[in-house]
Structure formats: structure tokens, C-alpha cells
Amino acid sequence: MTSEYIIKTQNVSKKFKKTYAVKDLSLSVRRNTVYGLLGPNGAGKSTLLKMITGIIRPTSGEIQFCGRPWKRKDLSVIGSLIESPPLYENLTAFENLKVRAVLMGIGKNRCYEVLQKMDLADAENKKTSEFSLGMKQRLGIALALLNDPQLLILDEPTNGLDPFGIEELRKMIRTFTESGISVIVSSHILSEVQQVADDIGIIYNGSLLYEDKIDANEDLEQLFMDIIRKERAS
């Protein structure tokens, strides 16, 4: 039986020396949805995503992928863009993709496919040192899509983008779920998440304070502020 959830964390914690970056956090990401992970800077969003992508290991707790314990081999069907895109600026867009594709045993045709998908086909032979920030972000997502992932993780993907770049990225994210990709988007920009996400989780001081489907009629900013204020006052 296929699990309804692509990712679940159960009481996951990450401790650095004596400080918890994430503590006893349990969230559930449904298949073929966009999950908006909300929280102020330093809330623990990136730490959580780094655990899901195997960059760092949890101190305790369990991560489940497709209804079973997460294994490193699951990274073959997980794509991610965490922090800045990992680009070789002296290489072209296509060459950046080809380097990754060779390492993963993926044919070069897939490089052309993801360039097309991210609207970068006209820039395939352009060095990435000449790219705008928005183009670099799109190429970073193209790299994350190379392995045709079941789960795509985007950490603050709109950072530094202008309003047009943000709108383009929002439209692209919606197309991912239509092609069977589940997406986790972390952000502190509430209005952007409200326009793209199906479900949200609100994280603060390493704890998940709220998780539910998005209500189109609800004021997400007010909900967010109420939850954070209540936690600060407790």
C-alpha cells in the first residue's frame, strides 16, 4: 500500500553542542502537493531540510520516506536547492548540468529537458558568471530536477529575485506537482507561500507550532503572527 505521505518526520531533533536547532519536530508532507515551511530567519527551517536531504544527521528521531525509514539511497529520487545554487561560474549552463549528469549516470538529453523546463534553453551555451540572480536560481532548480525526483526541496528559492522572477518561479512550482513531484518550499515571505502552497507548517525556535491545509480565505500573515506571538509569550 502506497503511503499518503512522501515525507514524515517523527520527533526529529538536531543538537549543535548544547543548543537545539530543531527539537522533537514531527511534520507530514502529502504526495503531489506543495508544502510551505514557514518561519522567521533562524527558526530551524534549513537545518530540517538538510536532515531530509542527508547533508546532516539527526541527533534523534526518525525520518520516513514513502512510509518507511529514510535511507541514503532515497537521495536518488530527491532533488534539492538549499542556500545558493552550486554552480561552476566558468562553465556554461549546459556544462554545469552535464557535470552533475555524468556523476549521476544520467544521459545528456535530460540536461536539455530540464533547461527547457526551466526556460533556459536559449542560455545553454552562456557562462553562468554572466547569469542574473534569477537565472542562477532557475539553473539551480534545473540541477535539482536532473534525477527526475519524486520530492523537490527548495530553501528560500525567491531570495534576491525581482517581482517578475518571483512570479515565474511561482508558476513553475505549480507545474511540478502536476507532473507528480511533491515540493517543500521554505520561506519567510508569507504572501508567496500562500499563493503556491497546499499545506503549511510554521516553525519557530526549532519546533513545529502549526500544520494544516491552507485556507484560501484565511489571513495567513495574521495566523502566523498570532502563533508566533503566543509562543513568545508562553
UniProtKB/TrEMBL annotation:
Keyword Nucleotide-binding: yes
Occurrences of domain ABC transporter (ranges): 7-230
Gene Ontology MF terms in the entry: ATP binding
Keywords recorded for this protein, A-Z: ATP-binding, Nucleotide-binding, Transport
Record carries keyword ATP-binding: yes
Cited SUPFAM superfamilies: P-loop containing nucleoside triphosphate hydrolases
PROSITE patterns: ABC_TRANSPORTER_1 (PS00211), ABC_TRANSPORTER_2 (PS50893)
Any Pfam family hit: ABC_tran
Record-linked InterPro entries: AAA+_ATPase (IPR003593), ABC_Gallidermin_ATP-bd (IPR022501), ABC_transporter-like_ATP-bd (IPR003439), ABC_transporter-like_CS (IPR017871), P-loop_NTPase (IPR027417)
NCBIfam families: galliderm_ABC
Similarity annotation: Belongs to the ABC transporter superfamily.
PANTHER family according to UniProt: ABC TRANSPORTER, ATP-BINDING PROTEIN (PTHR43335:SF8)
The protein's name: Lantibiotic protection ABC transporter ATP-binding protein
Annotated source species: Blautia caccae
